[in-house]
Amino acid sequence: MQVSGERVLLGAVASHPLDVVAGRAPVSIRMAPGSASFLTTDRGRYNFATFYMASGQTALQRTPLGLQISQELRRQILFGHLKPGTSLTQQDLCERFGTSRMPVRDAINMLVMDGLANRPNNRDAVVADITLEDILDAFEVNAHLHALASVRAITRGTPEERNRLLNIHREMGEAVDNGDLPKSAELNGRFHRQLNRMSHSNPIITALRRVTAFVPDDFVKEAPDYAIRGYDQHQSIINAFLGGEGEKLYEMITHHVMSVADHLVEMLSDHRRQPDA
């Protein structure tokens, strides 16, 4: 089977060969349904995360490996696990992530563009000196943009989108009850992204994408005590949203986002006061 484009469908036979057209040269891979693998093309190395279709087929979606690496480094920088001045050499990162130089170079370039790393004197990149004030400023901008998007979503969101939001909220409640922090963190991010998308505003969404470079989306995993509080606040947000209370919703969203910022900054302050191991 030969396919091309952003999405690839794979049959249910474990040894079924799949030819992926990358540029001019097809690449053949073999993969079992429900598995994950890497594909190297002329555009980079991609991770194919799989999920099952209702038809019994497996759908494959690709995420550039450089983006995955940059996201992992970004969260480590924002949570203080990588301290300012830490060198980000390509060789070290290649060994750490088990990949070639190209995706690592792409990841470093993304961090530099977002202001999370810099290249002093055009040498190896180092982690930028991000102050707690920088993080608070980014959260405040994010809070008002997200609040504006949520208010727009009241009148612009479709019934299907509202149902999707409610389902995400319900699933997050189940994850919190089960103590599943990784799942809670994933659903927390999906909840806020769904509200943003429901605004159907390209300017707001574009601005949010830019500022979120300084806003970690998996905060719940680092602060498990915040999971229940965050879910309870989501319920209040849902109530205001469904009730069409725009002003109340705006206030709730900004308070919700800034409460995360305050919690994160407090955690980072404690972490930065600890001596290096």
> What CATH architecture label of the largest domain applies?
Up-down Bundle
Radius of gyration based on Cα positions: 21 Å
In DSSP terms, counting alpha (H) and pi (I) runs of 4 or more, how many helices? Answer: 10
Largest sheet: 4 strands, antiparallel
What would you call the structural class? alpha+beta
Termini Cα gap: 53 Å
Strand content range: 15-25%
Lateral arrangement of strands in the main beta sheet: 2-7-6-5
CATH superfamily of the largest domain: GntR ligand-binding domain-like
Supply the number of structural domains. 3
Given as residue ranges, the uncertain stretches (5+ residues, pLDDT < 50) are: 1-61
Instruction: Indicate the mean pLDDT.
Output: 78
Total DSSP E strands:
10
**For this structure, what is the CATH class of the largest domain?**
Mainly Alpha
Q: What does the overall shape look like?
A: globular
Q: What is the N-to-C order of secondary-structure elements (H for helix, E for strand)?
A: EEEEEEEHEHHEEHHHHHHH
CATH topology of the largest domain: Four Helix Bundle (Hemerythrin (Met), subunit A)
**Helix content estimate:** 55-70%
Highlighted features:
277 residues; alpha+beta; Arc Repressor Mutant, subunit A; Four Helix Bundle (Hemerythrin (Met), subunit A); 3 domains; three-stranded mixed beta sheet; 10 helices; 56% helix
